[in-house]
Amino acid sequence: MTYSDYTVGEPIADTKAPEGPVERRWEDRRFGVKLVNPANKRKLTVIVVGTGLAGGSAAASLAELGYHVKSFCYQDSPRRAHSIAAQGGINAAKNYRNDGDSVHRLFYDTVKGGDFRARESNVHRLAEISVEIIDQCVAQGVPFAREYGGLLDNRSFGGTQVSRTFYAKGQTGQQLLLGAYQALERQIDAGGVEMFARHEMLELIVIDGRARGIVVRDMVTGEIETHLADAVVLASGGYGNVFFLSTNAKGCNVTASWRAHRKGAYFANPCYTQIHPTCIPVSGDHQSKLTLMSESLRNDGRVWVPKAHGDKRAPGDIPEDERDYFLERRYPAFGNLVPRDIASRAAKNVCDEGRGVGPTGLGVYLDFADAISRMGRAAVAAKYGNLFQMYQRITGEDPYEVPMRIFPAVHYTMGGLWVDYDLQSTIPGLFVIGEANFSDHGANRLGASALMQGLADGYFVLPTTIGDYLARGVPKLAGDEPEITEAQTAVRERIEKLLSIDGTRTVDSFHRELGHIMWDLCGMERTEAGLRKALERIPELRREFWENVKVPGSAETLNQALEKAGRVADFLELGELMCLDALHRSESCGGHFRAESQTPDGEALRDDEHFSYVAAWEFTGSGAAPVLHKEDLVFEYVHPSQRSYA
What we know:
Layout: E1 7-8, H1 25-32, H2 38-41, E2 45-49, H3 53-65, E3 68-72, E4 90-91, H4 103-113, H5 120-140, E5 165-166, H6 172-190, E6 193-196, E7 199-207, E8 210-218, E9 224-228, E10 231-234, H7 255-262, E11 267-268, E12 273-279, E13 302-306, E14 323-324, H8 326-330, H9 340-352, E15 364-367, H10 369-375, H11 377-395, E16 404-413, E17 416-417, E18 430-432, H12 450-471, H13 482-501, H14 507-522, E19 525-526, H15 528-548, H16 560-584, E20 593-594, H17 608-611, E21 613-618, E22 627-632
Parallel strand pairs: 1-22, 2-3, 2-10, 3-6, 10-18, 19-20
Antiparallel strand pairs: 4-5, 7-8, 8-9, 11-17, 11-21, 12-16, 13-14, 13-15, 15-16, 21-22
Helix pairs in contact: 3-6, 3-12, 4-5, 5-12, 10-11, 14-15, 14-16, 15-16
């Protein structure tokens, strides 16, 4: 494949979203779905891959409704899902602060924050459900922070001018996951959920055009297992680790989604990845991942760099009038709480100017001196203490005494498998929820919205919409269909191939090189020339991988090198599609800055006339040109405009 090797196919449309006023569409869809009666639910099996917030809440909710659920995760326990890393909070339009928030304002902020590249129907539904999520989680005992009078507390996050983010200190994701985990464990104990920990999905089984099961590998024994069902749900998270260095857990991967993509599920907007502005800077080549500092810190921390180029003085030695609080200067209306893409690009720009801080010059200060002076150390510790402790343990610097150093890093992926309003992919019976789908965030996700989407999908949307599919009838399987054998054989042959190459390069060396290509050429700033270069280099790297990778050990036991090899092989295919998607979209939008498309003052310049669509890519075979299907975006309530946070 080369950069120009794709064809444009028939347009794709979301046919499940009802017509009419946007505030009525979810209610109309809920009333319009077919229902499965309770006795019949007990006869139906649903597979859920992933046990993070989306997968855990979905499995628990489906079992509560009466379905038989098979739940899979590659971790030792569902509690180890990467959702625990979402520290800062979860958005909801409760308007507890009486500061002007509403469902419509959350809807507006999310569409605008995504740079007008998300569906209005999906985003409005998300805003509506947000208020129900908080009640659900409080009922589960999630220990949200409370004000002195006992009411739930809120704080602000980027891209908004209201306080709508509910939080549990700096451990919000962990506490929400424990709530979902308890609900899941209750259903495991009741027999509604069969739990398969330490199992990795390696293939999707499609029979007569429907998703009917998965092939998994027991990661301890190496045994290849087949599991069949009436529907399959992917809740397997994002693919940020294609960049090697990211804030994701090392195990996060694209394999479940990519196996589905190769079987016919369209992959939408793969180049849309989020760069988070508040990450501990890279310290050297020894690192295998990066550490996120919560965006909540930007509530009270002030971001700055020296005004002078190459100023190497300690931060305490730089007078106030020689500091550039560049976010406050450039975006006075939002200040340090501009959206993530805006803050990340601004930080990169000042570092490119030679005003970055730290040993590498790739960092900016996040300073709490004013907050400590205003609120007192105890109050700051109450809000952010665990984050400060984490920073000090990693860097050896005390953020109570010196400013934190932060720099943008890959965090979340807005792209994912294409789904309709019901969260069903282009393969009937395959539903995709949470970060694994593309649906709700456009070209940039607002902070504290990932937890919101995961729980909305799992607790509220999927349990309604999957029933509509199942109620229409799913044929019974004999269990000996040839597609089952073909899927099993494909998995075994792939494993045997990886183990038989016996080359001279480690899996990590290939992954790290791919990460450098992706970050340098398809990261915060892209150019046509750079993307073409990436599209020449990635196929070469992939060919070398399949000729020269070294995977020690065997398939009949625990083998982490084998696990990584399969995941990196899929990253090598995904990376090429990401660069192709980035090349074809010759506009700047969200965090995806094309140097050829910018305003006179250096801001991102969208091209709504030519690119106001979802790019849904169809796999046509290994080495074959993919097909691009466009879903036009229609804006009736939030009309696209040049984003301004000044």
